[in-house]
Specification:
Layout: E1 2-9, E2 15-16, E3 24-26, E4 32-33, E5 35-42, E6 45-52, E7 59-65, E8 70-75, E9 86-87, H1 88-106, H2 116-133, H3 138-171, E10 182-185, H4 192-199, E11 204-208, H5 211-214, H6 224-236, E12 240-243, H7 264-282, E13 288-293, H8 305-322, E14 327-332, H9 349-358, E15 365-371, H10 384-391, E16 400-407, E17 419-420, H11 426-442, E18 446-451, H12 479-490
Parallel strand pairs: 1-9, 10-11, 10-18, 11-12, 12-13, 13-14, 14-15, 15-16, 16-18
Antiparallel strand pairs: 1-6, 2-7, 3-4, 3-7, 5-6, 7-8, 8-17
């Protein structure tokens, strides 16, 4: 067995929760390593005692309160086992310095003129980290490491924003964004008339479909609520993303079907009846069919891969039977890899997509849920660099990519949710939305950006509905609503060629795009 020790003195300003949240050991490629992790609280901090299988090195990820940057999930570099405790603050700072260097290389952002503020803060962070390495005592080492983390997070967020700005000007230099760039997710239980004004500026709406709502009694279908929204979307000229068609998550099945939750053979025929009737009703009024959403996580309990694939194939073929040119989408969750390990039988999002492709399933789009500030493991708060780096994993996919459920809360949802900067507020939600939509839509392979909940409770999926709404229940917009629409208006006309930040005058010379 390999043993690791990590110690944190909280007098430095870096603090852990009680108990610590989001603790896990990682191997190369951030793959999870099974580990026995114990935390021993001490008067001014605590000590992690970790035992894993024999590995040459591993990293610790944990949620830490780092002050002004927020309460975020951060990690160390890969480190070898040893008997002497590692200083957790120092190792978190080391990883942040490494991240800046690595992403500067990945993104070809070596020239300081591409991101002058980021480089300035990084150089200060690097020197502070170096000072921490040679500090005369542990107290000085811890405080310097805490300062290096703070400056390093600021630098990496600024680097991510600068990189996004360059790519946005490359993508939209001489053309505008598509007519289906910005979307939002409605609550079918709400009134279309009351929300019409706040929905009008959005390009697309997502209408959640739930079997339990449509067929509460076997053989008796009620499409009243869905009809109201699909009819409204048609009158308003809004393309619709509808689904998920197949959903085994807790609460999604009708009560009469619950006894067959793990008897797929008994569930298959009534599921197909529901799919066939529902798809036939809306086939000409839905732009994209969301086949499934997060099915790979087995939230309802362990489910064989063969059943996941068969259910996905059944729904996909049902759509194709009614309209061969219909567009379908598979939505994946848990992009950061935090939930899979806690749900037996689950697959990672990219592994699931590879399995579907290997089985010959054809789908035109991949949807991705990106939610932070929630209390479930896969939705805890992250910094902007981590988000941007995670989205880079979609590069090179054959299918188009939609960020089909993006969200951050307008209020704190619990101690385990963490925060980005100060506590979550309507203004903080707006700032996050503004920064993340720019990062997301700068990626040339991402087709559109859809908020996870127009009103609170728009989706029962944990970490995406209650507390995440863009508007009040009566339709009054929150600040994030305005920030998203401001960004949408910005890309409704060409942005022009990118200019170096220091060249501000109208006569300033244009420079070559570093990513051209």
């Amino acid at each position: 067995m390999a043993e690791f020790l990590f110690q944190l003195d909280e007098r430095t300003g870096i603090r852990l929760g009680r108990p610590p949240q989001g603790v896990r050991m990682l191997g190369p490629g951030d793959a999870r390593i099974r580990a026995e992790i114990r935390f021993r609280a001490e008067p001014h901090g605590g000590l992690f005692l970790i035992r894993t299988k024999d590995v040459p090195d591993a990293a610790l990820r944990v949620q830490v309160d780092v002050g002004r940057a927020g309460e975020l999930l951060l990690q160390t570099c890969l480190l070898p086992p040893r008997e002497k405790p590692y200083d957790l603050a120092l190792e978190l700072a080391r990883h942040r310095v490494k991240t800046f260097i690595q992403k500067s290389e990945d993104w070809l952002m070596f020239d300081p003129a591409f991101a002058p503020d980021a480089v300035e803060h990084f150089e200060t962070a690097r020197h502070t980290f170096t000072d921490a390495l040679v500090a005369p005592d542990l107290t000085a080492e811890g405080r310097l490491a805490a300062d290096a983390i703070d400056l390093g997070l600021l630098a990496t967020d600024e680097l991510a924003a600068a990189h996004a700005n360059i790519l946005l000007h490359r993508r939209y230099a001489r053309r505008t964004a598509s007519a289906a760039t910005l979307g939002t997710t409605i609550d079918p239980r709400s009134n279309p008339g009351r929300l019409a004004d706040s929905l009008a500026p959005f390009d697309v709406i997502t209408v959640p479909f739930r079997w339990c709502d449509v067929e509460p009694v076997r053989g008796r279908f009620d499409y009243t609520r869905l009809d109201a929204w699909i009819d409204w979307a048609k009158r308003a000229g809004k393309p619709v993303i509808a689904g998920p068609l197949v959903d085994f998550a807790p609460g999604a099945l009708p009560r009469w079907a619950e006894p067959h939750r793990f008897d797929y053979a008994a569930l298959r025929d009534p599921l197909y009846d529901y799919l066939d009737r529902t798809i036939a009703r809306y086939i000409d009024r839905v732009g994209i069919w969301k086949i499934s959403a997060g099915m790979h996580l087995c939230r309802d309990g362990r489910r064989p891969l063969a059943e996941m694939i068969d259910a996905t194939r059944t729904a996909t073929l049902a759509v194709r039977r009614h309209k061969r040119t219909a567009r379908s989408m598979i939505e994946v969750h848990d992009l950061f890899g935090d939930t899979r390990a806690k749900l037996p039988g689950s697959l990672g999002p990219f592994e699931f997509l590879e399995r579907l492709s290997a089985e010959g399933l054809r789908f035109e789009s991949v949807g991705a849920r990106l939610v932070v500030g929630g209390t479930e493991p896969g939705t805890r708060s992250r910094d902007l660099m981590t988000i941007s780096d995670t989205l880079d994993r979609f590069f090179g996919m054959e299918q188009s990519v939609l960020l089909s459920a993006v969200g951050a809360p307008w209020r704190p949802l619990g101690d385990s949710a963490g925060r980005w900067g100060e506590a979550w507020t309507p203004d903080r939600q707006a700032e996050w939305a503004d920064r993340v939509i720019a990062i997301a839509m700068s990626k040339p392979y991402i087709e559109s950006f859809c908020w996870s909940a127009h009103t609170d409770g728009a989706t029962p999926d944990p970490g995406g509905g209650e507390g995440f709404g863009l508007v009040e229940d009566d339709g009054t917009p929150r600040p994030a609503h305005g920030r998203l629409l401001d960004w949408r208006r910005r890309v409704s006309r060409p942005l022009g060629v990118w200019r170096r930040p220091e060249l501000r005058s109208p006569d300033a010379a244009m420079v070559d795009d570093p990513h051209a």
